[in-house]
Amino acid sequence: MKTRIALIGFGTVGQGLCDIFLSKEAYLKSKYGFEASIVAISDVLKGAVYCKEGLDIQQCLDLVKDGNNLDKHKCNGTNCNCEKGWDSIRTIKETNADIICELAYTDVKTGEPAITHCKTAFENKKHVVTSNKGPAALQYSYLHKIAEKNNVKFMIEGTVMSGTPVLNLVNGPLAGCEISAIKGILNGTTNYMLSEMEAGITYDAVLKKAQELGYAEANPTGDVEGFDAMAKVIILSNVVMNIGISADDIDREGITNITPKMISDAQKENSRWKLIGSIEKVKNGIKASVKPEKLPLSHPLANIMGATNALTFTTDLLGDVTIIGAGAGKIETGYSILTDILGIHRQQ
Fold it and tell me: Which one of the listed residues 126, 232, 274, 330 is annotated catalytic?
């Protein structure tokens, strides 16, 4: 039986997921016995369409690529009885989807509208897979309890390091290990900028370049001031350490005060500046921070360059375990959604 999926938001991640479904359809069916049916898409800007028998995904991708609204979707190339124009809440409540992929734009400060989307899905007995940091950073315990109460899953792999399997690593291969500390590069934009600054490019010039490449937003505050990395630190503490913390518990500093002289001095000392997110269990609880650190080149995180992310887990049984991979990207983040969907599929 096909797994019925509704997408709330049809931006980069949702389109990346659909690209994966189209390119790997035969492989997923033969390897995992998995078949996906995207029955609904609801996007504030691109429109909404619901067809209980499943949408023509290639047609949906072509429509938005050409700047058209999803209400132009036609089943099998003809006029159909698809429902059009439903908002996100109605889509979550009234469609026949088994899984809600919550991929809408979210205010990290409030977690909305994603928190409401997740809560609504759980209360309607539907699983949620999301790459949105807001719900996981601000209301993870609350939402997880509602999901458990309704016997559905709250899957959030894509909230930290995109498709690089950080949370699944902890729940899978590292199961049985006690993790006492986590330290890593959690923001690809700032890591790219610091890498380029070593080549002599000024902060302003490299920020402009990062924006042109799509690494940094027009308003780069979330990246350069450490807010994005801070949200991921909160998620890691909540999910991996099982210790609830908030922004007030984190010593946060971005990279805006890093000067060319600091970069040059570090190079002379065989060191390198990195924006590091850190969580450590201490006697009275947990110590968490996001701040620039000058690392010796012998440190495993010092040689992570460009937009790549990396995390080191300090464990009692294996010592330090470091995972390196993409922290962003259309296909990479789309993959994080796929892997959580497959996780739900395997448990059914």
Answer: 232
